[in-house]
Design a protein that fits this description.
The chain is an alpha/beta fold. It has 2 domains: about 50 residues, 2,3-Dihydroxybiphenyl 1,2-Dioxygenase, domain 1 (Roll), CATH 3.10.180; about 45 residues, 2,3-Dihydroxybiphenyl 1,2-Dioxygenase, domain 1. The chain is built from 2 helices and 8 strands. The protein has a 4-stranded mixed beta sheet, covered by helices on one side. A 4-stranded mixed beta sheet has the order 5-8-7-6, covered by helices on one side. The longest helix is centred in the first third of the chain and has 11 residues. The relative contact order is 0.21.
Length: about 120
């Protein structure tokens, strides 16, 4: 997978969430009439593209969040990652792993999973 594209009506909030809450770094961005977006790189090189629907010439019909879709980020140490980014306490899974569960500003579930889990 090269990257996941997320179209949103909350561009600033989404960009801030992935950068400031989860430590993603900008790789590329654009801001022009008819299009604004950013590609962010996160843990393990996972990339997210955030598209500003307010700038799109043909806006997409955005759907409500679904429990079927979870964005899963794998990190070496969930506890350390959580402390670094001031995230809520991790949970133990049924298989003995550790996870953190968050929701991005659009309401999609983000799960931070320890590689040892």
């Amino acid at each position: 997978m090269s990257r996941l594209a997320l179209a949103t009506n909350k561009y600033e909030e989404m960009t801030s969430f992935y950068q400031n809450m989860l430590g993603f770094c900008p790789v590329q961005s654009w801001d022009r009439p008819g299009a604004r977006g950013v590609i962010l790189s996160g843990p393990g090189g996972f990339k997210i593209e955030i598209l500003d629907m307010a700038r799109e010439k043909r806006p997409l019909a955005l759907q409500e969040p679904s429990e079927r879709v979870h964005l899963v980020l794998e990190v070496e140490d969930v506890e350390k990652f959580g402390h670094l980014w001031n995230l809520p306490a991790h949970e133990e899974t049924s298989w003995g792993g550790q996870i953190l569960k968050l929701r991005d500003p659009d309401g999609w579930q983000v799960v931070v999973l320890g590689l040892g889990g």
